[in-house]
TrEMBL record:
Pfam family, one: NMT1_3
NCBIfam families: TRAP_TAXI (TIGR02122)
SUPFAM superfamilies: Periplasmic binding protein-like II
Protein name (Swiss-Prot/TrEMBL): TAXI family TRAP transporter solute-binding subunit
InterPro entries: TRAP_TAXI (IPR011852)
Length: 326
């Protein structure tokens, strides 16, 4: 445990702490980001020893919630923060009362954006939005991300808000498939699907392929009231404009619901330890931006805000405030 009343400038800890960092698969975003942070933490916080282990967005909250408060830290997505606090989704299946003892340190500001794209040859006349497309009840071949992926979950939620189901898409004479990211571009390029619903960072390699190779690719606008309803209904989503500068086929930004990722801890983690972890992350933000292309938007003035349904830990709030980011 960190000594009570320790001055914020004093990084000497009362005793050694062995901490487990729950990240994700080797080579994935979570493990890459966590590795950079661990290197900084162990250099700057005396007595702190951290081991990173593979984890997952929906399993990490259980490890942190049920572990020793000063001995675990994890990463998850903002959708899962809502499921954890409310006992819904995959979290609710195992913890129907929720995991309400989790608090955020920072978020990544590495947003994944929702988008619906259609081949121009399959687009009904006069249709420019997703809602207008559903009104036509078209017979189309739809591609979603693989089942269980946050993008596939978001697709189902969008359909629900629009008052449409997967069964409707089939009943209209169409078909539905669930595919990894890379297959979306090949399926669209080869003409095997008509509509691709994705949730991914921008730019994404598979999206650049699709943008360059599908000459009549059309991005359907999402009605703003639908975005608002989705965010109000489920939580964990962030309302932003989908950036347009990366893709030739996207002529202007449009409002969408996006998802981010959060570094989080147990609510009972010692305030000073949470403060020092967060302060290190914020002070080394430029290092993170330079180290990982996926974290090129990791700016301190953004990452202390919109942390899903996890409130900031009091130590993180102190660090963000002292450094002028709250």
């Amino acid at each position: 445990m960190v000594a009570a009343g320790m001055a914020s400038s004093d990084r000497v800890m009362a005793q050694d702490i062995d901490m487990t960092a729950y990240a994700g698969s080797v080579g994935g975003l979570y493990m890459e980001v966590m590795s950079v942070w661990i290197s900084d933490w162990e250099k700057e916080i005396d007595g702190l020893n951290i081991s990173a282990v593979s984890g997952g967005g929906t399993t990490n909250p259980f490890h942190i919630s049920r572990g020793a408060p000063n001995e675990a830290i994890g990463i998850t997505d903002t959708i899962t923060t809502a499921d954890a606090m409310e006992g819904t989704g995959d979290i609710g299946a195992r913890a129907p009362d929720g995991l309400k003892n989790l608090r955020a340190l920072v978020r990544f500001n590495a947003l994944s954006h929702s988008a619906f794209m259609i081949r121009g040859s399959a687009l009904p006349d006069g249709v420019t939005t997703v809602g207008e497309l559903f009104d036509e009840k078209p017979s189309l071949r739809w591609a979603f991300f693989q089942r269980g992926n946050p993008g596939e979950l978001t697709a189902r939620r969008f359909l629900e808000v629009y008052g449409v189901s997967i069964e409707d898409l089939n009943d209209w004479g169409g078909s539905v498939s669930y595919n990894p990211q890379a297959e979306h571009s090949s399926l669209m390029i080869d003409g095997h699907v008509d509509v691709s619903m994705v949730m991914t960072r921008a730019p994404a390699a598979f999206m650049l392929d699709m943008d360059a190779s599908v000459r009549d690719l059309v991005w359907l606008k999402i009605e703003e009231d639908i975005v608002d309803t989705l965010i109000d209904s489920y939580g964990g989503y962030i309302k932003v404009d989908h950036p347009a500068e990366f893709y030739d086929s996207l002529k202007e930004p449009f409002v969408t619901a996006s998802v981010d990722h959060v570094l989080f801890v147990h609510e009972d983690m010692d305030e000073e330890l949470a403060y020092q972890l967060t302060k290190s992350v914020l002070e080394n933000a430029s290092k993170m931006r330079n180290a990982l292309k996926s974290m090129s938007e990791f700016y301190p003035e953004e990452v202390c805000h919109n942390t899903g349904r996890f409130e900031l830990h009091e130590g993180a709030e102190r660090a963000c405030s002292e450094l002028g980011y709250l």
